[in-house]
Amino acid sequence: MNDVILKIRGLRKHYKGVNAVDGIDMALQRGDIYGFLGQNGAGKTTTIRMLMGLIQPTTGTVELFGEKIGKGKNPVLRKVGSVIEYPGFYPNLTAIENLELHGKMMGVKQSDAFEDALQTTGLWEARNRKASNFSLGMKQRLGIARAILHNPELLILDEPTNGLDPMGIKEIRHLIQELAQKRKITILVSSHILSEVEQLATKVGIIHRGRMLEETSMQQLKERNRQYISLQVDDLERSKELLVKEMGIRDCRVDEDGWLRIYDDGHVPGEMNKLLVREGILVNSLHAMKDSLEDYFVRLVEGGAVGHA
Amino acid sequence: MLDLIACEWLKWRRSRMLWLILLGALLPAVLNFFVEVHNSSDAAFQWKGYFGDNLMMMMMLMCPALYALLVGYLFAREFQERTVNNMLTGPYSRNMVLAAKFIIAIPVLGSVLLLAFLLTFGSAFVFTSDLPSASVFWHALGKYGLLLALEYALVPIAAAVALLWRSYIPAMGLGVFAVISELTIMQSKYIMYYPWSAPLNILDTMNEHYKSTSTGVITMVVTFIVPLLFIVTYFRRADVHSG
Fold first, then answer.
1. Which chain B residue is nearest to residue A47, measuring alpha carbons?
2. How many domains does chain A have?
3. Chain A residues within 8 A of B95 when measuring between CB atoms
4. What is the ipTM of this complex?
5. Within a domain: residue B171?
6. Does some domain include residue B149?
7. What is the pTM of this model?
8. A277, A216: one domain
9. Cα distance between residue A205 and residue A217, in whole Å
């Protein structure tokens, strides 16, 4: 079940002297919940629009289920459901009529598909209300109902929690997890909210200024944000020298606040303290710490340690 | 393709634009009715004249403006209602989406003229109890049909304006401009070269001196084809950034 269903190679979009997306590579395997993480304006939506055929790439290719996405007819899009940016609906039609319209377009024949999609998203009771009367949270859920109506293998959600209150965010997150688990849908979800991606994704792609800085599994990312020992001492250079020479420490850095960080595993903090004190160095503070994804993201975006294992 | 046409049809359900279709047919019919009330004391009722007057109002005033608005709405509503993403991420090519819209424009625009014809036909019985002769009836119906065909040739221009600006407001502006300009140009020697005045002289004789049906037909064919080619090329390549 490890087949690649979305493959992007060298995708670039050039606008008026600027590369909105600058040579992105990306791969989604069946079963992934791919968190496409980046600040506002990083190029997430442009990338998603290119992979859905809404924007023509300047260069590069998009392959969905082994078929290239081009300017003409793309029958493979029948296997994809999407909510891109704001979920728009025909205001004169009810929720179920909006789904019927989409169902016709996507060739949905099963009559129970409409009820199924609306039940899954908790909108069955509101099916006869006009979509224009829905709240933003309901519209997001209706957008997801529309996107899963034709039973897609890949679901693309662009900032699905934008503008929602905390309860709404929780509901959408729960819904996405449920879709991945129960319906076995592969999901690509873009967001600028780290915690959201951290809670949802099994794989992460970090985009910044149109470039993919890193693409890795959430497991690897969590491992990478490993524990470290943080020391505040009166003589940084000598401390560093002693720790490297006497304890064989290899990954030792000074952070922007003047703290010494030891990333090597298997060293007891007390031993370090003992060594430094013995050598006449004043140890003001010593903590066992762990990098958060946020720390890592900030370092990555600011051009810090990328991909250190 | 049939599914796409069905989708386009479904989109009109409970649309406010349906009121405009009714209004577009009703207003000229009511105006025609009161003109006839005013004239009824002077002359006997003529079916041909009654249909002709309604046709003239539709042709000169209502159709150019209303059709530009309806076509603009048909082609640009997805941009304004932000449903364009959904419309263009289906398994169909953009040209098929366009084709469905061009097909559905026929019953939408046709319904205005059909309603106008029926209202005129029905309201005439206030003035006469006689049915029109078969030749008058079919001749009038044929003229309404011809008007629909000539006005349909203007659909790509309004569609192009709506798609370029991604709004039906400029198309509405085009309609108003069309009415004003046609009334000016119909009095000049360019009547058969101007797409909004040529139908007037093809369908009726507005300017006998410059009446050349073949020139008018060429004008309308060019008017249909050139913007159509533009739309097909433009829409196929246009990036969709919002919606």
1. B241
2. 2
3. 72
4. 0.84
5. yes
6. yes
7. 0.83
8. no
9. 9
> Whose structure tokens read 């129970």?
A112
Q: Are residues A202 and A247 in the same domain?
A: no
The domain that contains A212 carries what CATH number? 3.40.50.300
Chain B CB contacts of A49 below 8 Å? 239-241
Residue A307 within any structural domain of the chain:
no
When pLDDT is averaged across residues A86-115 and rounded to a whole number, the result is 90
Range(s) of the domain holding residue B128: 2-12+19-237
Residues A156-204 have pLDDT tens digits of 999 888 877 888 888 888 888 888 888 889 999 999 888 788 888 999 9
pLDDT of B201 reads: 85
Residue of B82, B89, B166 for testing the chain A interface, max A β-carbons within 10 Å: B89
Report pLDDT for B220: 95
Are the C-beta atoms of B196 and B178 separated by less than 8 Å? Answer: yes
CB contact under 8 A, A86 and B236: no
- What three-state secondary structure class fits A108? coil
Q: Which residues of chain B have pLDDT under 50?
A: none
User: For residue A245, what are the domain limits?
Assistant: 226-290
Task: Give the residue with greater pLDDT, A265 vs A8.
Answer: A8
Which pLDDT tens digit goes with each residue over A144-155? 999 999 989 999
Q: Are residues A104 and A60 in the same domain?
A: yes
Q: Looking at the partner chain, which of A52, A77, A101 has a beta carbon nearest the beta carbon of B10? A: A101
Number of helices followed by number of strands (H, E) in chain B: 11, 0
